[in-house]
Write a structure and sequence with these properties.
Layout (H helix, E strand, L loop, with lengths): L3 H8 L3 H6 L1 H10 L1 H21 L8 H16 L7 E2 L16 H12 L18 H11 L3 E5 L2 H13 L4 E5 L5 E2 L3 E2 H7 L3 E5 L7 H7 L4 E7 L15 H10 L4 E6 L17 H7 L3 E5 L10 E5 L1 H9 L1 H6 L3 H13 L6 H4 L1 H6 L3 H19 L3 E10 L11 E10 L6 H10 L5 E2 L1 E3 L2 E5 L8 H6 L10
Parallel strand pairs: 1-13, 3-6, 3-7, 7-8, 8-9
Antiparallel strand pairs: 2-10, 4-5, 9-10, 11-12, 12-15, 14-15
The protein binds pyridoxal-5'-phosphate (PLP).
């Protein structure tokens, strides 16, 4: 005699029959036959196991099985790289992708993705057969330099510059106070070694003088270099050689002066009420022969590295075989051109360039936003977590102005029961939302800085909060 569970097991339809059912037809259309087949086999195996353990379980119908398959396949099909809400308070967050493209750059980039473009094709005989020519004129206007090259990122720009000027074992003189490590394993001494140069350190960590550079100049010297310290600051008893002084010493010694600016904002941030950040134009005016900076830091564009400077040196950089390996693709080039076009009128940057728009948001406007979201947040986290609107301090990020912060506002989420790991678990729940929310843990609370919550995304943010699943739920 058959038990009811083995009857049920027998009643599970065959895979082939199921795949012919309309509900599975839709699944196959959406996910493709191989994945649906694989998923269905696993699902049926699970069902058999379950039915074996239960005396009188009902056999799920086609639609139920298809719905379960859809659930599993959707989770598996979710892209690995996906949008998040950056509520960390760091505007240019390297691990969250740094600058956001303005709409103009998104349009230009997607057009370049989908259509042929004149990347290295001289259409009008104007000598635009070189990919960098699409952005060079604007870069020269914005920096006052004679020539410009763009490559994959600023690390590549520094590498290519050093390799071209001092490869083959020649010396580059740098102050000990500037031998920095930038996040993501960019270390000046290591880049130098891999570019085939010999690093000649001068001065001390806190003080370097003109005479230190002067006495290091010799037969083997290929360049003097200045590196923007980016993510740290030396205070107290300090001395550094200003760019103009360093350029003068380099030129007296017959070698170029190279400056790695890191951020390299193209316009004066003070015009937007932000602290001053060195500009490539200032470096060029001070006499730097080559200046390198990032495209996706304060400039607010795509990931790229920009080299501007003397025509003869830039021409040598272009001829370096590594330029081909480090060149920029058409998509980012299109985006960069669109971003640089916004700089034609710097007044537009405040509204149209996301990086500047986010950096210049006023604390009271951000606080008003936090207030609008507060009650939905309280409802989502329940009574176990106190939610209040609190002042906080945003950072620019990516090494720009590490010490200066921007007054901001957000929500402070404090678990009332401060048992071990309660805040970490709360942060984890927010990271598991459909669009993960990334905050910052400080003083036993999860802080959500609203500076980078674009008002156009506020309703998306609020409406997914009901899906929050707290550890105790
Ligand atoms: C950020 C930075 C770099 C590296 O630039 P990427 O664009 O991230 O490659 C190099 N030098 C300095 C001084 C920097 O701040």
């Amino acid at each position: 005699m058959l038990t009811s569970s083995s009857q049920a097991r027998r009643a599970i339809p065959a895979v082939d029959t199921l795949l012919k059912a309309p509900a599975f037809g839709v699944l196959i259309h959406d996910f493709g036959r191989p994945l649906v087949l694989d998923c269905l086999r696993k699902l049926l195996a699970d069902q058999r196991k379950r039915l074996a353990g239960e005396r009188s379980a009902a056999v799920p119908d086609d639609d139920t099985l298809a719905a379960e398959c859809r659930e599993r396949l959707s989770v598996a099909a979710r892209p690995s790289l996906r949008p998040v809400f950056n509520l960390t308070g760091t505007v240019l967050h390297t691990n969250l992708g740094r600058a956001l493209y303005p709409a103009e750059a998104v349009a230009a980039a997607s057009q370049a993705m989908a259509r042929p473009v004149n990347l290295e094709y001289d259409i009008d005989g104007a000598g635009r057969g070189e990919r960098d020519s699409h952005v060079e004129e604007r870069l020269l206007r914005l920096t006052g330099a004679e020539a410009a090259v763009v490559v994959n990122n600023n690390a590549a720009a520094v590498y290519l510059t050093l390799n071209t000027v001092a490869g083959g074992g020649r010396e580059v003189v740098v102050s000990r106070g500037e031998l920095v490590e930038i996040g993501g394993a960019f270390r000046v001494p290591e880049i130098m070694a891999s570019a085939g140069c010999v690093l000649r350190e001068v001065g001390t960590t806190n003080r370097t003088h003109p005479r230190d550079f002067e006495s290091a100049l010799g037969e083997r010297t290929a360049a003097l270099m200045k590196v923007h310290a980016s993510n740290y600051e030396i205070r107290g008893f300090t001395a550094e050689v200003p760019a103009a002084e360093l350029a003068r010493i380099a030129h007296a010694g017959g070698v170029p002066m190279i400056e790695d600016l890191g951020c390299g904002m193209l316009v004066d941030l003070e015009d937007f009420g932000l602290p001053h950040e060195p500009t490539p134009r200032e470096s060029i005016a001070a006499g730097a022969d080559l200046v390198t900076f990032s495209g996706d830091k304060l400039l607010g564009g795509p990931q790229c590295g920009i080299i501007v400077g003397r025509k003869d040196l830039v021409a040598r950089i272009r001829k370096n075989p590594m330029k081909r390996a480090l060149r920029l693709d058409k998509v980012r080039l299109a985006a960069l051109e669109a971003v640089l076009a916004l700089y034609d009128d710097p007044q537009r940057l405040r509204t149209r360039l996301p990086t500047i728009r986010l950096l210049t948001r006023k604390a009271d406007e951000i606080a008003a936003q936090a207030n609008r979201v507060r009650s939905a947040m309280q409802q989502a986290v329940g009574e176990g977590v106190a939610v209040d609107v609190a002042e906080c301090a945003s950072q620019i990020g990516s090494g720009a102005l590490p010490v200066d912060t921007l007054p901001s506002s957000g929500l402070r989420l404090s678990p009332l029961n401060q048992r071990g790991g309660a805040v970490d678990a709360l942060a984890d729940s927010f990271r598991r939302l459909p669009v993960p929310v990334i905050g910052r843990i400080r003083d036993g609370a999860l802080w959500l800085d609203f500076r980078c919550l674009d008002e156009s995304q506020e309703s998306e943010f609020t409406s997914q909060l009901h899906e929050l699943q707290l550890p105790g739920d």
